[in-house]
């Protein structure tokens, strides 16, 4: 069924998706594990050599997903928890990944999800504050620009907020950028990494193509089309799925990739740097205190927030469009937990 190379990649201890520095191993929880993202994400985390134990929680279906995933022949233990077992699911957990919540349907923006997902994320964050206050939290649930401030505000109220421990997962924008750019220049995606800064929705997604050797010469209509595709790539999936949801498989891949990067940083590997949406000083003077930029991941989570670096005139314009929208999204999240 698989090409031999694909089987080798899945079996290899350090495939392109997962590399392992092998020093440590970790208990990871997935909240929303029964969903379109949660299921493949749980499977991919089961294949990550740095994950020793997987705790799968959802308001429906997690024990079934756990029974299924637990048969995969990797060393980690897997346990599933039913709707009334959230606290149990969080016991002893080092990292919590949150893909719980409703996805978009055609015609919806990520902000349209706010009313439903804001309270889901707040309630999960309260449970984390109570049971696993030192856990590192990776937020996938949209709108990320608002759900991350909601988690921060909830933890702050509980007196346990550590900015080094909270991440909005923007990796799918990074994955899409590398993939789309590779198609244009005819290179491997591994040769066309792109730093994506800002936030995670439409105009707040700012790819820094000028900083890449393969992307800096793309100009004119080709540039505008590529930027648009990176910013609105999610819509392609929502439209093609025709009412059945948004990106799940590519998001699971991106979520597993970011989790692996975080675990490598926690294990002491040096130089693990990737874009992610964190509490950031970069635009704090403009009242924007969460921002995605390259972040070095270390033994305590956020090790160093990198500045965005030199950018082109076009990127200045993209940033100008990003900042007011991002500010609005962040304020909406903060107001919800005020
Ligand atoms: N960050 C990103 O790049 C990105 C990309 C794609 C989708 N998303 C977002 O991820 C979220 C999930 O998408 P999906 O396609 O998996 O949706 P889905 O509807 O398939 O799955 C969501 C799961 O969350 C569960 N859930 C709901 N409330 C819960 C609660 N209180 N506790 C635990 N679980 C709960 C549901 O039972 C369901 O199994 C959406 O908000 C979507 O917009 C983010």
Which regions have little confidence, pLDDT < 50, spanning 5+ residues? 1-15
User: How large, in whole angstroms, is the Cα Rg?
Assistant: 19 Å
Main sheet, how many strands, which sense, barrel? Answer: 6 strands, parallel
The span between the termini is 52 Å
- Please give the domain count: 1
Fourth-level CATH superfamily: Lactate dehydrogenase/glycoside hydrolase, family 4, C-terminal
Shape, principal axes of CA atoms: globular
- Mean pLDDT across the residues is 94
Fraction of residues in helices?
40-55%
- Which range does the strand content fall in? 15-25%
Would you list the SSEs in sequence order as H and E?
HEHEHEHEHEHEHEEHHEEEH
Question: How many distinct beta strands?
Answer: 11
Concise account of the structure shown:
The chain contains ten helices and eleven strands.
General description of the model:
- It is a single chain.
- The chain has a single domain (19-338), classed as Alpha-Beta Complex (L-2-Hydroxyisocaproate Dehydrogenase, Chain A, domain 2), CATH 3.90.110.
- It has ten helices and eleven strands.
- It has a six-stranded parallel β-sheet, with helices on both faces.
- α6 links the parallel β5 and β6 (166-168).
- With 338 residues, it is α/β, with parallel strands linked by helices.
- Bound molecules: nicotinamide-adenine-dinucleotide.
């Amino acid at each position: 069924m698989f090409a031999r190379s694909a089987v080798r990649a899945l079996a290899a201890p350090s495939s392109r998706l997962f590399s392992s520095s092998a020093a440590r191993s970790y208990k990871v929880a997935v909240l929303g594990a029964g969903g379109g993202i949660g299921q493949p994400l749980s499977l991919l985390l089961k294949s990550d050599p740095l994950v020793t134990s997987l705790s799968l929680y959802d308001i429906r279906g997690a024990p079934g997903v756990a029974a299924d995933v637990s048969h995969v022949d990797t060393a980690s233990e897997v346990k599933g928890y039913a709707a009334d077992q959230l606290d149990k699911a969080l016991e002893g957990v080092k990292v919590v990944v949150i893909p719980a919540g409703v996805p978009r349907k055609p015609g919806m923006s990520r902000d349209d999800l706010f009313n439903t997902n804001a309270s889901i994320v707040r309630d999960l964050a309260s449970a984390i504050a109570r049971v696993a206050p030192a856990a590192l939290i990776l937020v996938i649930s949209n709108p990320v620009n608002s759900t991350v401030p909601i988690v921060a505000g909830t933890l702050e109220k509980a007196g346990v907020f550590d900015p080094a421990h909270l991440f909005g997962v923007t990796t799918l924008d990074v994955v899409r950028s590398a993939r789309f750019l590779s198609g244009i220049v005819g290179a491997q995606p591994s040769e066309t990494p792109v730093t994506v800064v800002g936030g995670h929705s439409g105009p707040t997604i700012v790819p820094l193509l000028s900083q890449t050797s393969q992307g800096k010469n793309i100009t004119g209509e080709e540039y505008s089309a590529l930027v648009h595709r990176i910013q609105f790539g999610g819509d392609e999936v929502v439209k093609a799925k025709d009412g059945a949801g948004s990106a799940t498989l590519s998001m699971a891949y991106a979520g597993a990739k970011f989790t692996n990067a975080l675990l490598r940083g926690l294990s002491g590997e040096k130089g693990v740097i990737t874009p992610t949406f964190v509490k950031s000083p970069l635009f704090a003077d403009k009242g924007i205190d969460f921002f995605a930029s390259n972040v070095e991941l270390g033994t305590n989570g956020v090790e160093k927030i990198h500045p965005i670096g030199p950018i082109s005139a076009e990127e200045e314009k993209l940033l100008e469009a990003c900042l007011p929208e991002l500010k609005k999204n962040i304020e909406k999240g903060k107001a919800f937990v005020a």
